Amino acid sequence: MPSSWATPKPVCRVSFFIAITRSQTISLAYLGSTRSWTPLKVVGDGSFGTVWLCDWHGTLPPKTPLSPMQCGAGARPEWAGKRLVAVKRMKKRWDGGWEECSRLKELESLRAISSHPNIIPLYDSFLLPSTKELYFVFESMEGNLYQLIKSRKGRPLAGGLVLSIYSQVVNGLHHIHESGYFHRDMKPENLLVTTTGLADYIPTSPMATSGAPPDKDVVVIIKLADFGLARETRSSPPYTEYVSTRWYRAPEVLLRSRDYSNPVDMWALGTILAELINLKPLFPGAGEIDQVARICEVLGDPNHDYGRDSRDRQIGGGQWLRGVELARNVGCTFPKVCYDIIIILSRL
């Protein structure tokens, strides 16, 4: 943590008035409203922006609740009396002014997707005229799912906790899709987490005996974040080839398809669930070709050679003509997987 945050003091004061015209364009003028905040610590630093946990001294939208970090048994005493928010500063200079900012995909999607308990809310956004820097003000959260998984150090999550996390992610993702958008960058780092205490979860393992004691584990709130790559479902392809972190990328994206939609989010959701259970990535490919090979090792290559099981279900990956064509276009050949391995995996 930079030494400049060691003794925080208010350093950012901006007076703006935000006027929304009939065409929903936003202009900034130096009038009465004051924004001021105290940076507490850096919580994220990426290629496009830096995020601070801050104590907010200005106004927020009416009925804005306290951060989950300040509620419940998990609230830390040092947060008492503060108004915690996450302030994100974009690194790009926006010389085109607010009109240019308003076309930013992240801002468009955050405005279009209505409030939901499992989606991080945007409280405010503004452009600093002196530096042409764009700022977002979000609800603050404790960390992310990647950090939670790493903190377990190999200790499995209680089955009930996995179900809780999964259901919250599904609810948030369903709301995004119902709003006409898909996320395109689903990964543990973009699922924000706040722990609010401990709970007893009913054992869900099939090996658990009758009357087994409950599994004690943390209670978490999950919220989907980082909509920088989100797109409208009805928008016209082609889309960017390189989206999402490789390990969570759907096969069609790995094969350089530029015509895809919300199923890529569902693929990522499945890989995240597997990681929650195993505490390690499901397909940790070293490159795109290796990623495809690892997927085939688990799911089989896309053909009909493996037949069907006793329930008449396709064994292995099944035929995928579009995938074969995509692979051919990029010079990739699906690796053949041992028939016996596929049969064994299909029975698990």
UniProtKB/TrEMBL annotation:
InterPro entries named in the record: Kinase-like_dom_sf, MAPK, Prot_kinase_dom, Ser/Thr_kinase_AS
Keyword set, alphabetical order: ATP-binding, Kinase, Nucleotide-binding, Serine/threonine-protein kinase, Transferase
Residues spanning the signal sequence: none
Stretches assigned to the Protein kinase domain: 37-348
Gene3D superfamilies: Phosphorylase Kinase, domain 1 (3.30.200.20), Transferase(Phosphotransferase) domain 1 (1.10.510.10)
GO MF annotation list: ATP binding; protein serine/threonine kinase activity
PANTHER family: MITOGEN-ACTIVATED PROTEIN KINASE (PTHR24055)
Protein name as it appears in the record: Protein kinase domain-containing protein
Organism in which the protein naturally occurs: Sphaerobolus stellatus (strain SS14)
